[in-house]
Structure formats: C-alpha cells, structure tokens
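Hi support team,

I'm filing this because I wasn't sure whether my run with coenzyme A finished correctly. The job status page said complete, but I'd like someone to confirm that the output block is well-formed before I use it downstream. Pasting the exact inputs I used:
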Amino acid sequence: MTIEVYSKKDSKIKITFPTKKNGSAVAKLIQCCPPLDLNSTYHYLIQSHYFNQTCSVAFEGEKVIAFVSGFINPANKNCLFIWQVAIDESYRGKGLGIELIEFLLDQNKDVNTIETSITKNNIASRRMFQKIVKKYEATMYEEILFDKYEDFSNEHESEILVTISQIK
Ligand SMILES: CC(C)(COP(=O)(O)OP(=O)(O)OC[C@H]1O[C@@H](n2cnc3c(N)ncnc32)[C@H](O)[C@@H]1OP(=O)(O)O)[C@@H](O)C(=O)NCCC(=O)NCCS
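And here is everything the job wrote out:
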C-alpha cells in the first residue's frame, strides 16, 4: 500500500516514501542544495530502496522538490538519525522540511529521539530543527560528532551532533 499525504500548506505537494525510481532525481536535487555533500546516485538508490521507510520525498506533479534521508540508529531503535534534508530553493521558508520529517515521525511510531548533524554555519537547518524542538516541547543537546581536523583531515567543517529527545 502506498502511503502519501498532501502538504498542509500547499495541497499540490505530495509527501511519501521514496522508491528506487526517485534515486536519480534525488541526486540531482542534492546537487542543487549546497552545502549538502553530493553522494553517488548509487547511494541515493540504496537509500530510496532499502531505507525508504525512514526517508521521505515531496513531489509537485512529477517533479521531486524535496527529500529527507534517515535511518534508525542501530544502537537505539527509538532514534531516527536524519542525514540530509534538501528542499528545492523555490520551496524553502514554508516549513516543508518539517512536514517531511513529521511524515517520518508519523510512520515510525517507536521514534522518540531525533539525531542529526549540522555544520556551525548552517543557520537555516538549525532554525528548522529548533522549530521542531519548540513544537514538540522537546530537549536539544549538542556535541561534536565528526571533527574538522581529527575526522575530516581539514577538508570539511565539523559536524555537530544535535540530539532532540522526548519528542513524544
Ligand atoms: C535547511 C532547509 C532544509 C530548511 O528547509 P525549509 O523547509 O526551508 O525550512 P523552514 O521553512 O522551516 O525554514 C527554516 C529557516 O530557513 C531560512 N529560510 C527561510 N526562507 C528561506 C528561503 N527562501 N531560502 C533559504 N532559506 C530560507 C530561515 O532561516 C528559516 O528560519 P525562520 O523561519 O526562523 O526564519 C533548506 O533551507 C535547504 O534545503 N537548505 C539547503 C540544504 C541544507 O542545508 N540542508 C540541511 C542540512 S541536512
């Protein structure tokens, strides 16, 4: 059975789980969404096929306009790690990222914690997650996950692990 919902802000936008048919379009979307790291199309096919119950995609008509990738933390089955959130530039600022994440919370009822990683300068991403914290009266905790020098050999900004707990 296909599970799909329509955006509360714009009923032309459909939100659902991705399938492997979307992997290639997702890679193209990510390419247009700096500062996200572009992974291979094969990577997005794997996410859209094997991890699709913890990923969400938004369409306007046939066009992929937004994507969230995630997985259940292997060390904690109640924790959804959100990896990449990508909203086509012309659809930003309307809460669509939060709607895609809420779709995943609705479909994964055991999840009570979100982990994500954010670079220091990504204000828009930080704001989006802060709004989730406020809406769900959750708590937020931050620590370095992958360090610019120790882990990225000075080739990438540090990724800060943001843990949002008690979201239900
Ligand atoms: C970060 C991102 C996912 C947020 O998605 P969104 O659906 O636009 O989120 P929101 O509507 O909740 O807005 C969040 C913040 O984005 C910023 N924003 C608002 N309108 C914007 C626009 N038109 N363009 C860019 N950023 C905008 C604001 O700082 C806003 O916070 P505010 O509402 O307190 O002012 C989106 O900007 C994006 O895809 N960015 C590029 C990729 C990326 O950085 N992903 C996150 C890392 S995983």
